[in-house]
């Protein structure tokens, strides 16, 4: 496929406006139309024609579309794009139900279309650096992944709770940086904001290689935090995805002479390294990677099948919180076991 891809955007909300900004300046891509039934009273479409329906956008002859409408509409919009032979980058979560996500996977895969999910944390410089270092074995055996994602309530969210909106970030990034899948999850949720959906979750899980996982996610805190730590035999990586900083706390190699500590057979504190890494905008990186995937020059995207897996784990989190049981997961299958 030659340079000059024709792209469309569906949705001009809080994420859609940023997609429009990036698409309008993206090399080798032309933003040819934006769909939003509410119009563009804020001028976020970057001068592109604003349309009322997805069919109008498809009729313009587009190579791919970015789906940034409410989660509940992802399936309907995605299936229409697939039917028309249009590649798609769908905002996370890929769909609001496991069944809907499966239908999207089938629709795009059966037609051989490139499709991805906008799990933006994969494009955060700190997590990309962490993942490459883990792949290189810098941490040795991995023992535990801990994430904290909290902040004030986002008034833009009306159709899903904190598990599908926020925790899906942590579910996806955990599997991505470790290269593992979830095998079990146990969770508790609370709802304190007067909405029908949960606004706080605490989850404990296990990955396919035995790694322990802890997720604390809420939108009830005045403190905004985006914290990921991975602890292994050689130390701990800590990523702050708000600032895109990555630090490494190493296990000390020197022996201590303090008698009280000598008896402790664990680890002791060693050097701390704060890595200097290039800090490009994650959304721009996401768009560049998806553009290159459509052009056939790269495959570094979150696939719909990976997005489906994240929705399955999110469903397991909610099932565990409702049933009070640990939920075991295998690909395409969820089951509850034990009290």
Automatic annotation (TrEMBL):
Top-level taxon of the source organism: Bacteria
Occurrences of domain Gfo/Idh/MocA-like oxidoreductase N-terminal (ranges): 6-119
Domain GFO/IDH/MocA-like oxidoreductase: 128-237
InterPro entries: Gfo/Idh/MocA-like_OxRdtase_N (IPR000683), Gfo/Idh/MocA_Oxidoreductases (IPR051450), GFO_IDH_MocA-like_dom (IPR055170), NAD(P)-bd_dom_sf (IPR036291)
SUPFAM superfamilies: Glyceraldehyde-3-phosphate dehydrogenase-like, C-terminal domain, NAD(P)-binding Rossmann-fold domains
Pfam families assigned: GFO_IDH_MocA (PF01408), GFO_IDH_MocA_C3 (PF22725)
The protein's name in its UniProt record: Gfo/Idh/MocA family protein
Species per Swiss-Prot/TrEMBL record: Streptomyces pulveraceus
